[in-house]
UniProtKB/TrEMBL annotation:
Keywords: Membrane, Transmembrane, Transmembrane helix
Pfam families: DUF305
Gene3D superfamilies associated with the record: 1.20.1260.10
UniProt name for this protein: DUF305 domain-containing protein
Native source organism of the sequence: Candidatus Tagabacteria bacterium RIFCSPLOWO2_01_FULL_42_9
Superkingdom of source: Bacteria
Domain DUF305 per the UniProt entry, residue ranges: 55-204
Length: 209
C-alpha cells in the first residue's frame, strides 16, 4: 500500500493552509514580512506577540499529533513481532509522552490555563496550521491499522507520513518562534523524526514490504 500520492496531495493542502496561518496567527518573520507588505497587510502588534501566538498554536496542534503517534505505537506493541518495530514503538511512546508533558507545562506557565484541544482534533486531526496535514493517528487510521493483515507494512506506511508532518510543523515553528525552549523542541523533533523516517524507509526496502 503506497501512500506517496496521498502524501503529496496533503502537502498541497498544508501549503494552502500556511496562507491561512499568516492571517489567523499574525506571524511575521524576515521571510514573510516582505510578502505581507506587498499584499498590503499591516500588522498592529509586535513581533514578539506574533511569535507567542505561533507557540500557543503549535502546542495546541502538536499535542494531539503526538497522541496519535503514541496510539499507533501502542498498537504496534500489540501487533508487531519484529524487534525493530517494537523498539521504535517504545521510543516513540517514551519520547513523545515526555514532549507532551513538557508542552503542557510550558502552556500552563505561559498562558495561565491548561492546553485547550478542540474536540474536532481527536487523535491527530488538526485544524488551522495543520488542517489536513496530520496524516495518520485518527480513529479511522487506528481501526484500519488494527485490522490490517500485514500490520508491519501498514504501520510503517502510516507512521512515515505522520512523522513527515511533524517535521514540517517543527520547521514552521523554527521560522517564527522567539522562545529558546520552543526552538530546541522544534529541532529535537526534526532530528529524531527524520532519523526514524530514514530507518522506517530502510525497513520497507529491506523487508520487501
Amino acid at each position: 500500500m503506497k501512500k506517496e500520492p496521498i502524501f503529496y496531495c496533503i502537502i498541497g493542502v498544508l501549503a494552502g493552509s500556511l496562507l491561512t496561518l499568516l492571517f489567523t496567527t499574525n506571524i511575521v518573520n524576515s521571510n514573510n514580512y516582505g510578502m505581507m507588505q506587498m499584499m498590503g497587510i499591516r500588522q498592529g502588534i509586535g513581533i514578539s506577540s506574533m511569535a507567542n501566538n505561533l507557540d500557543r498554536h503549535f502546542i495546541e496542534q502538536m499535542i494531539p499529533h503526538h497522541e496519535g503517534a503514541i496510539e499507533m505505537a501502542k498498537l504496534a506493541q500489540e501487533r508487531s513481532k519484529r524487534p525493530e518495530i517494537l523498539t521504535l514503538a517504545d521510543t516513540i511512546i517514551k519520547s513523545q509522552s515526555q514532549e507532551i508533558t513538557q508542552m503542557q507545562a510550558w502552556y500552563k506557565n505561559w498562558y495561565g490555563v491548561e492546553v485547550l484541544v478542540d474536540s474536532s482534533v481527536g487523535m491527530g486531526m488538526g485544524r488551522g496550521m495543520m488542517q489536513g496535514g496530520m496524516m495518520g493517528g485518527t480513529t479511522a487510521d487506528i481501526e484500519s491499522l488494527r485490522n490490517s493483515t500485514n500490520f508491519d507494512e501498514a504501520f510503517l506506511q502510516e507512521m512515515i507520513p505522520h512523522h513527515q508532518m511533524a517535521v514540517m510543523m517543527a520547521r514552521m515553528l523554527l521560522s517564527g518562534t522567539n522562545r529558546p525552549e520552543m526552538k530546541q523542541l522544534g529541532q529535537d523533533i526534526i532530528t529524531a523524526q527524520e532519523k526514524e523516517i530514514d530507518q522506517m524507509r530502510s525497513w520497507l526496502k529491506e523487508w520487501s514490504l
